[in-house]
């Protein structure tokens, strides 16, 4: 398994290097126009394609070394949502409804080839509703699309989404190792390796970006493995993967609340008020005394703060992966902490706490 991880890392590292220097057409690059853009030069946004190709290559490597092919059933289910994301990276005009439809098809493929339908979340009333097949499918589609989109939402600064994804995947890998689930474990390792190969080029200088295709691909894999882990092993609480992904997921939920309820705007209307953007604009200059026009330094200094925030969910999830009530308490604690942190930054109170 370590060989597969290293193989995925090597292929991803080389492919990202090639994409940086050979894909120079503007259609493959991210501009710096818009409220969510904080880089200073047009940059290739197809790092996700390198990750995708690396994962598939590593799966082939694993197949020929371990003589196992079940990993391809997992990867086959990722194709529709990944293609929709890559199309957005290239054409930048893919309707959100098409991306949601692609997530629906991926979930259908996942339910057909592997055990990928949510039938329980350890809440009695909702669990009874999830026994209805249509309800279970709708709930699963919303959950999977939500996780995939949450990785995309936090993909705003160098190294942020890649390290957050790696932390979450390590949490899933640890529990899979404890339960001797080799399929989920190898899928985690391969994805970690491929994401790591991208990270080297993305952080701290931002030579290449993940893009929608990469974010949706990684997010779908995280969602898929989370559901499989809970469905295949009764001892795993359904709240374990939720706590592991709580940072990007709650960022998404809070953004919907902020846009729809507080600002009375469309939920898909981009703005510059995500937590990572507030840290970039208001915390980093204060902590490091960085000039506001030094975008690269501020960009690179932002992500470690959010890695730490993510770990507040991942670490207790790994420790208490069996215990539903403990995990639930930590989910509530994280949500309260997030809201407190967000309000403190908005009201310019974070300075006195840092002092």
Can you summarize this structure?
The protein is 73% helix and 1% strand.
Comma- or semicolon-separated keywords:
355 residues; mainly alpha; two-stranded antiparallel ribbon; 73% helix; globular
Number of strands: 2
Please report the distance between the alpha carbons of the first and last residues.
45 Å
* Percentage of residues assigned to helices: over 70%
Shape: globular
Average pLDDT confidence is 89
H/E series, N to C? HEEHHHHHHHHHHHHHH
The number of helices is: 15
Low-confidence stretches: 34-39
Major sheet = 2 strands, antiparallel
Spatial strand sequence of the major β-sheet: 1-2
The structural class is mainly alpha
Total domains? 1
Strand content: under 5%
